[in-house]
Design brief:
Rossmann fold; eight-stranded mixed beta sheet
């Protein structure tokens, strides 16, 4: 794979600054609620706001309602090509485009809009078909990987003994697609290292998903109650059960409550576990919330806790940092990239209920000056993840220009 920094750039300044036609291929997109969908939405909206013509290929909302629609995403209007898709019933909302139809839809849309560049958000289904058809037409492809094996295994419904085979086949398929891309990115350096080792490629570029820090309202004043918060999908790889068990072990005098924002297939199991642990009255399941409500919940929380073992970045953690929260996170995959132990919070051994409980106690019993120091460290640490830095980097990749610092 060619190093993006070595790609040729045009000597014509006007041409290198002209608006581009960008086609984003996303197997999950609005109204789905997950990190990959959120990133694709912000990328599409950010590029549109900069004057580029953005088209998105994504699954239809229902099988019957497909076609090209003008939709408003993150406040920006763009064209979404909703492909006929089917509900995957083992999952609570996932829809998929059939593999043998993906190339057909890709050919039709590529020939219609003639994009300058294609940016796929995964190698699965839409990304695979779009990459192969774009390459046939000489259209450069940028690929971003948001996939971890744990994301797949939750919903295969196959016996556990076949999981290893499923992962092996999935990464083999990923390699075939990603090697066709001009550049491959993933949200963090840790995630890039993981991907390079998983499919034996080189030159994967870490590019943060990015957030707009101005959208969040940090409250650095002392809290009137101890509120632990988690935001994300309620699925097995998030290990929310570990947080629930840790909450149950905290000193009762701390009167800790646990707010859970998000939906997923594990909600009922988590509700049952909270009952078994005797903490149902202190656990609040919000489900999906509006952006305004989420910001309010973030601003009043005491600490953000995440026990996930499958985060390639974690937009939710970055949102918590932008809200000025100390973070307690599992020392797994990309979370150590965001959480610096002893600075903006603490890391704990993945799956260790006792260690998580101890680190939560450290935050909740910290002196006001120590808490303020952790809050400020979160605000300082999220600066490098500003969405404008992310957009600058992808614009350079699209144009084949040297990457910004």
């Amino acid at each position: 794979m060619t190093s993006p920094a070595s790609l040729p750039s045009s000597s014509d300044d006007a041409d290198t600054q002209r608006p581009l036609t960008v086609l984003i291929g996303a197997d999950t997109f609005w109204p789905d609620v997950n990190g990959a969908a959120r990133f694709a939405e912000r990328l599409a909206a950010g590029l549109t706001a900069r004057g580029h013509e953005v088209h998105v290929m994504a699954p239809s909302l229902t099988h019957a309602k497909h076609g090209a629609f003008r939709e408003v995403i993150e406040g920006e209007e763009m064209t979404i090509h909703r492909l006929p898709s089917w509900r995957y019933y083992p999952h609570d909302w996932l829809r998929f485009v059939t593999p043998f139809r993906s190339p057909h839809h890709s050919r039709r849309i590529l020939d219609e809009i003639k994009p300058d560049v294609v940016h796929i958000q995964s190698h699965i289904l839409i990304g695979r078909g779009l990459t192969r058809e774009a390459r046939k037409r000489g259209i450069p492809v940028i690929a971003t990987n948001h996939v971890m094996p744990e994301n797949i295994l939750d919903f295969t419904t196959l016996p556990a003994r076949l999981d290893e085979l499923i992962v092996k086949l999935a990464w083999k398929d990923a390699k075939r697609t990603l090697l066709r891309a001009r550049a491959v990115t993933t949200p963090t350096r840790n995630a890039a290292n993981f991907l390079e080792s998983a499919i034996d490629i080189t030159g994967v570029i870490p590019v943060s998903c990015g957030i707009d820090r101005q959208n969040y309202t940090p409250d650095l004043t002392p809290r009137d109650a101890n509120r632990v918060l988690f935001v994300g999908r309620l699925t097995s790889e998030k290990k929310i059960d570990v947080v629930l068990r840790a909450i149950a072990r905290l000193d009762p005098s701390l009167a800790v409550s646990f707010d859970i924002v998000g939906g997923g297939d594990q909600r009922k199991n988590l509700e049952l576990l909270a009952g078994e642990l005797g903490i149902s009255d202190r656990v609040h399941f919000y489900g999906h919330t509006s952006e305004d409500e989420l910001r309010q919940i973030l601003s009043r929380a005491s600490v953000f806790a995440i026990a996930s073992i499958a985060e390639l970045q974690s937009i939710a953690t970055m949102e918590a940092m932008a809200s000025g929260l100390p973070i307690v996170a599992a020392n797994a995959v990309a979370l150590p990239h965001l959480v610096h132990d002893g600075e903006n919070g603490y890391l704990f051994e993945p799956g260790s209920v006792d260690e998580l409980a101890a680190r939560l106690t450290d935050v909740l019993t910290a002196e006001p000056e120590e808490r303020l120091r952790m809050q400020q460290a979160s605000l300082d640490g999220v600066i490098v993840h500003d969405i404008n830095r992310t957009l600058n980097t992808f614009e350079a990749l699209y144009r084949g220009q040297p990457l910004p610092e």
